[in-house]
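Batch job 17 of 40 flagged for manual review because the log was empty.
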Amino acid sequence: MFSIEIEALPDEKDLLVAELWEEGCAGISEFEDGRLRAFFEDLSRRGSLIQKFHAASWREEAEQDWVAISRAGWEPLAIGERFFLVPDWRDDPAPPGRFRIVVNPGMAFGTGIHETTRLCLEALEAYVRPSGPLLDVGTGSGILARAAALLGAAPVWACDIDPLAVEIAKATASAAVFVGSVEAVRSGVAAVTVANISPEVIAALAPALLRSLLPDGVALVSGFERAEVAFVREALERNGGHVHESRYKATWALLAVTRTPAAPE
């Protein structure tokens, strides 16, 4: 048994965790500063894993049930007013009035634990309209698409450029999921478009995110920190967006953006 320590950037952590589980790790611990420690049984793979994940260090570990230890750190989580997230190995019922969503932290791509996912879930409660169409851009695990459907959004579409994420989302989300980007979506289809991705990608996709909205629609964008809000806001406003609400959780942010009405000719 050995472990490797890995530096994990916030917007890459979910994918990194998924890759570690795919490599057969026995458990993962997360430090407050974002570092990860992943545990493996086969010492002969040490060199290849250190190289693949650019590990900062490694060490031998005493034999323990790292799966049980890792799972012990995951508890059911109430988010906002309506959601109750439960790891897939637990059978906790949802409290009255809350939707129960089963998550597999090993699948990553959005498990509900990260602050930006919580911000998006809470914002969906405020902005989803019954029978209003919704588009989830960069869907990952599909958790936001699932949540939107539970809140009454219909139809729900979801997309991701990662085929693995799409396969995961198809298995769990009540949505039409496809490999691709919001740039492939026709104009004026969504009452709500949600995108929990990196600030650079949001800036690049700003025209398409806004174009996807119905005239009175709203884009909920997150995946960036407070220090990056000005960069994201400028990109959205430059492309005809109007930021009418900002939400924050710890160092993370979410912007609710509408389309600026065109000036009369």
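Reviewer: the log was empty due to a logging misconfiguration, but the result itself is present. The first strand starts at residue 2 and ends at 6. Unflagging and moving on to job 18.
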